[in-house]
Write a structure and sequence with these properties.
- There is one protein chain.
- By secondary structure, the protein is of the alpha+beta class.
- It folds into two domains: 30 residues; 110 residues, Nonspecific Lipid-transfer Protein, Chain A (2-Layer Sandwich), CATH 3.30.1050.
- 32% of the residues lie in helices and 19% in strands.
- The protein has four helices and five strands.
- A five-stranded mixed beta sheet has the order 3-2-1-4-5.
- The longest helix is centred in the N-terminal third of the chain and has 27 residues.
- It is elongated and about 75 Å long.
Length: 176
């Protein structure tokens, strides 16, 4: 097929129609700019993970081993972005006070010793014993249904979406 001979008949617009198209384009541009501004300005809401002034008790070696094994076997591990690890911390309540327990910095290569997470998950430690019987994804979903999961980030939803786009297929698992 010879593309030089191919003619495309584009419609001819009157000057009035051209003005309408320009106004419509500008209105759409303003609308999407406002939406973008609103999404960027309002941060992700969730339960704030604040350990300042609270007791922090480490997980016992058995609990730590169970959680580490479950994290390493997790299906979403490979989809965590290289430069944006996730922090998972456990807690329980004692006399109405939240007691924080051990936490894990999770990257796409496994459990990390250093890094700056972009999102923090907290989950009640009563679910640790169930990690031997079920996978981490199932447990987080169960804990989320029971409102035993907290999610916190300094980033808004739009930024988190961009940072963790590869993990969208696991959003049901992660309680999002």
């Amino acid at each position: 097929m010879d593309f030089k001979k191919l003619k495309i008949n584009l419609p001819k617009f009157s000057s009035k129609t051209k003005k309408r198209i320009k106004i419509l384009f500008i209105c759409k541009l303003i609308f999407f700019s406002l939406i973008f501004f609103i999404v960027i300005q309002f941060p992700l809401t969730g339960k704030i993970i604040d350990t300042e002034g609270h007791k922090i008790i480490p997980l016992n070696p058995e609990q730590r081993a169970i959680v580490e094994q479950s994290i390493l076997a997790s299906e979403f591990l490979k989809d965590i972005p290289k430069n944006n690890p996730v922090f998972l911390r456990f807690f329980y309540f004692e006399n109405g006070e939240r007691i924080w327990q051990g936490g894990f910095l999770i990257g796409n290569q496994g459990i990390l010793t250093q890094g700056e997470p972009s999102i923090y998950f907290s989950i009640h430690s009563k679910y640790i014993s169930e990690l031997n019987k079920q996978n981490l994804c199932t447990i987080i979903g169960k804990a989320n249904k029971n409102k035993d999961v907290g999610i916190y980030s300094d980033y808004n939803k739009a930024r988190l979406f961009l940072k963790y786009a590869g993990m969208l297929k696991h959003r049901g698992c992660l309680g999002m």
